[in-house]
Sequence to fold (339 residues):
Amino acid sequence: MLLVLGPVAVALDWLGAAGKLTIFLVAAAALIPLAWVIGEATDNASYYTGPGIGGFLNATFGNAPELIIAIVAVSDGLTEVVRASLVGSVVGNLLLVLGFTLLLGQRGTIDRWSAAISLGMVALATLFVFVTSVPSFHGDPDRRSLAEFSLPIAVVLLLVRVSVMRYALRRQRALRETSDPTREAGWPLRVALAMLGAATVVTAFVTNSLVGSLQTFASSAHLSEFLVAVVIVAIVGNATEHGSAVLLARRGRVRLATEISLASSAQVAALLIPLVAVASWTIEPLALSFRPVELGALAVATALPALVLAHGRTTRLGGSILLSAYAGLVVAFYYSGNR
Fold:
């Protein structure tokens, strides 16, 4: 029944029947049941595709809110919100989502090769955006020359990500992964994919309403737009990954649960960030000029999961370490404020 919150949030926004603060809160709450639908659909689809491709499907459909948030924010001239929400999404997936997955889920093993590929892509993306960000440490971070400098680097990163993604998908198909033989099939594959698509469309509309009320929420809560974007908006945007990963981990589907957060972080870092930079030229050129605190957060979010998952097994201690690191970064974000 909570799924009605999505249409309600969109209707309130379109009809102007409620204040911006109310719309923000209703839209944020509406993403939670949508996360459940995407999690259920992914779990059922993975019965036919295997956990590797299942995690990829969840990352692809689950990252729709981040893409919509970025495009809408670019069109509204909220460049700081764009960059902060993308960084917050990567950090949230690798520290918050993965942390809760390890802490609350059952124990199990992971696909170390797949994890290495995902974390490697995040590390590569961090290196690329570091190169584009250094010139922005002085002067206007949104000057056109930085956007022009960012464009070819974004294109190269995009091409690398697409190439790696094609190779990873071929590997998953070659493995012919199957589900646990004791697990009964749920939804037919077509139904699962249709539910994924429908939930993603509704999520896009809800997310649009969420971004439109962000500034009002930040002002009412006496928080900087940067903090709201890098923490609150990122958490809301990652609601699908949060719900899906924890739900599956609790069911013992640990491999798929960890695949979701890792694949999603790689998708955002190496696909969405360069894609938004390229697409922004149809609206307003966006420079990949991230702040030092954002670059530091990306580095921490890449290194810690690599250490925690190095032995190929999930542990509650590892989850606690990741969650503690995320809490520390939130404090750093709070004191950073706006530029």
